[in-house]
Amino acid sequence: METKILVAAHKKFQMPRNQKLYFPILVGAIYNYKQGINYQRDDEGVNISNKNPSYSELTAIYWAWKNLKNIDAVGLVHYRRYFIRKWHFSNLNNVIDEKNVEKLLSKYDVILPRKRHYYIETIYSHYVHSHHKEPLDATRKTIIKLYPSYLSSFDKVMSRRSAHMFNMFIMKKDYFDEYCEWLFNILGDVENSIDINGYSEQEKRVFG
Length: 208
Description:
Blueprint: E1 3-9, E2 22-26, H1 29-32, E3 40-41, H2 52-55, H3 58-67, E4 73-78, H4 98-105, E5 110-111, E6 116-117, H5 123-130, H6 134-146, H7 151-159, E7 162-163, E8 169-172, H8 173-193
């Protein structure tokens, strides 16, 4: 199985040694590239690198969707956040490897982090207490318009008190392609329906 796990980074940082599996990608490279950073840049090929301030690491996902070919599975982790085989203080020495990935994907289509539990708040209330409410409500309207069959799933997730967080995954390529088409269609519509010009730099990362 040919798998590439993208390691999203906005600067040079220590990376896993397994260069066959792990694929460092410089997100927002159109802004963040500096001499000596030899990671794959997200501003090459078909890309949305210029949207990195509002799309965050999704510019890496978009790049992989449009440019990575002839592979069986795609993953995303972050330069300081990885899937690990077993807890170890230095997680770079214990990150998931090809053997673990192939074993899991032989039984499952997608690998995700363990759920994070909030207990008191729902996913919706947690979000709107921390961020602007408008984008999340606009997302629901977009789902009604573009993917109405997903509305019950969206409402179900928003009412839960736990979720798979951190924007990390490893999934079979066919599912990855379908996911990206679904995701970026939704985000493109939401982007066209709200105005984030008055948002802080942090809040402008809303699409990510």
